[in-house]
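Reviewers of the previous submission asked for a worked example of the structure-prediction workflow described in the proposal, so we include one complete record here. The input consisted solely of the amino acid sequence. No template or homolog information was supplied to the procedure at any stage.
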Amino acid sequence: MIKENASAYTDTLITDFSSPAFQTAFRRYFQELGITVRDWDGLWREMNGQGDNAAFLRTGPEGAAVGFIQFRPTLFTSWFFQETCGFIREFWVTPEERGMGHGAALLALAESWFLRNGIHTAILTTDTAAGFYLRRGYIPAPGCQAKNHDDVFVKHLPGT
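From that input alone, the workflow returned the following structure tokens.
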């Protein structure tokens, strides 16, 4: 439950990663992870160039970023089956706002976006928040390996 008035927060769908508010939040996220980026402009161009990246950015009453969730449809295919899953790429809530329900709200926004776009499975990796995802219905996917070697979690979203 968000401890403050939920209407004081704004959720914006981002599809153009040149948004200054998103860029500021993303830089804070990478700084927290200790990741150095030499060419930020190149990273934004790459995000925009992939075409199907999206994010929800949550801002507070003063307009500062509270957090974001970045996601995209990803097609998994084999010789017989294919499924488009909603891949949650990056997810961050500012340390000052953690534990207040913002992460759950952002995750619900992404899951709703998936369902509105005909996507019924969400997939992600995590090395820090397994319990958070387990509490929200995600299950480990032990047969699935991620390039980053983090644990993979999946959730089958309810049909409409």
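Strands lie at 10-14, 54-59, 65-77, 82-93, 121-126, 139-140, 151-156. We consider this example representative of the routine output the project will generate in years two and three.
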